[in-house]
Amino acid sequence: xxxxxxxxxxxxxxxxxxxxxxxxxxxxxxxxxxxxxxxxxxxxxxxxxxxxxxxxxxxxxxxxxxxxxxxxxxxxxxxxxxxxxxxxxxxxxxxxxxxxxxxxxxxxxxxxxxxxxxxxxxxxxxxxxxxxxxxxxxxxxxxxxxxxxxxxxxxxxxxxxxxxxxxxxxxxxxxxxxxxxxxxxxxxxxxxxxxxxxxxxxxxxxxxxxxxxxxxxxxxxxxxxxxxxxxxxxxxxxxxxxxxxxxxxxxxxxx
Length: 255
Known about the structure:
By secondary structure, this protein is of the alpha/beta class. It has a domain at 87-153. The protein has helices spanning 44-52, 94-106, 109-122, 138-151, 168-185, 196-202, 220-225, 230-254, and strands spanning 4-15, 18-29, 33-37, 59-64, 67-68, 79-82, 156-160, 188-193, 205-210, 213-218. 36% of the residues are buried. The protein starts with a strand and ends with a helix. Helix 2 crosses helix 3 (109-122) and helix 3 crosses helix 4. The strands form two sheets. It has a six-stranded mixed beta sheet with strand order 6-7-8-3-9-10, with helices on both faces. It is built from eight helices and ten strands.
């Protein structure tokens, strides 16, 4: 029987008079891929920053592996974050970026180098080890960021719109890579996106948010078959249908 890796209870967060998160509660199973889907400003990124320990909630609890971590510093939470803007060290090589995280963690330079090489090989960057990040494409930079996160051996990987700046072909390739890595490492993943099609293609379950509130959390199939309200029907189902219709029209034009 699957067990809960993460349990979030009644999280609330305000910035001044703006209530960004309102009584958020959900759980994530060990090894699950949960997408957090919603428009800009709905509270998705704030939620991830609270889970990681970069922001403090006004109220609520975070429980990981049965232990409360609500007030622990980020270094003690065993979570890794892949940021939208990659957050790589531009003065370091690709190999150096991944090594750096490992050397801080265990201090063994040789082991750090071996592990970094193995992970960069895993994400298809063997030929780019000595390059600086600015010489790489966006997709390659995101792979470096992913390898660096995997190097820390996190229990949970958090991804904040990691493909929003990439072209369609690169997004599709990186999407497959992330799913392959999840299967290989057995990772629990929380994935922020505003792209409905991306969420449906990758997720075990999808948590749809709007204005700091969870509108529905369910499997992609059940979201389509049993939408909880008009917001789900409009933001999720209607937008998916519009994309399908566009693809059908394009295919007909090409014939």
